[in-house]
Amino acid sequence: MLRPYHLLFLFSLIPAWAQGLAPHGFADARFGTRTGDDPLQRDIALAELRLELEFNHLGERSELMVRADLRYDDLDADHWQLDLERGSGPLDLREAWLQFSPTDLVDVKLGRQILTWGTGDLVFINDLFPKDWQSFFSGRDTEYLKAPSDALMASFFPSFGSVDVVYLPAFDGDRYLTGERFSIYNPDGGATGRANPVIVDPLNRWFEDDEVTLRVSGNKGGMEWALYGYDGYWKSPQGFNPETGNAIFPGLRVLGASLRGTLGKGLFHAELGHYNSKEDGAGSNPLLPNGEWRYLVGYERELGTNFTGAFQYYVEHMRHYGAYAQSLPDGAVKKDRNRQVITQRYTLRRMKTNLMMSLFVYYSPSDKDGYARPAVNYKMNDDWQLGMGGNIFWGEQPTTFFGQFEDGSNLYTSLRYSF
Prior knowledge:
Elements: H1 4-11, H2 13-18, E1 24-34, E2 44-58, E3 62-73, E4 91-103, E5 106-113, H3 133-138, E6 149-156, E7 161-168, E8 184-185, E9 191-192, E10 211-220, E11 223-233, E12 239-241, E13 246-248, E14 251-263, E15 266-277, E16 292-304, E17 307-318, H4 321-327, E18 338-350, E19 355-364, E20 369-379, E21 384-395, E22 410-418
Antiparallel strand pairs: 1-2, 1-22, 2-3, 3-4, 4-5, 5-6, 6-7, 7-10, 8-9, 10-11, 11-14, 12-13, 14-15, 15-16, 16-17, 17-18, 18-19, 19-20, 20-21, 21-22
């Protein structure tokens, strides 16, 4: 969907260009192929050319930023349609915002922006801003996991730290998985693929389907702390509308907290969130998501010269498990009360840090499935960078989150020129 103010920011590029404000950015080519055999998908997982241009103008008390990607995606070529919310089509408007400071104690940022909160490493509890799971699983750069939000953000700076309030006048959901690129589990049996993607009832009424999120943060004795609040909707479709037969975004309210600081020779972080499914407070409706507690602890430290390792333990605890279990129809797959995920990250830098090798692994001992992200990036010079990597899924059952993507495992390569 192209919203009217998106055009306003794009037209602002014309005077910037005319005034000699040269953009900077990069050109990126990526190709990926599946290693599994999925009859519902093409063998190609990624075939993309991308040109990113960024314009930035800094004033005395203000800043204007416009960052847009022009791209060709061969997997979308047969239904090429511009949709800035879903991230499809020849243009992806990544950022288009104006920031100004009416006083020394207040900052205001208005427009399309990429926001990130919380302490998790590729695990999110209180970061209730949109993610692009299509990009993450297909081999695009990790930065594209974070999708943009159309928002007003106000930051206040009292003596104890900072208070950030973000208001989204219309719901900005994830760029979620529909079956178009990766086949997903269908509770009715089989899998949903490219030919029959999930249909979702949209939430796009301005000032009605809105969201608000709050963060209060500070630093005490070298320990960073934060409290969070969110009122809106589940960011990916988590419910089902029996009248339309479509997936829906049920209402969601979240309260949370986080800590981050040094511990021994490394960095420690912890986070929790209370997820209140507003439309199913008792957890007795099988068509809506149950309420949850979510927990995360993590630790990172240097293991050797230019070699770091990190570990995280994450839990999703279903709050009303008894009511959920009783509400399930006969034959339905029952989830565990506690979904546990362990992550490990290893990063090695060599050749004056021009060569970076990394491995990030998710493993769920409760679901008995996992997901590995190996990657190698080599910076040939200041302009050129070569990369390769993979997205490898496995699982004992196609009904678990990572297990459903086993046939979508893929390898990719990339070449980037920066200017």
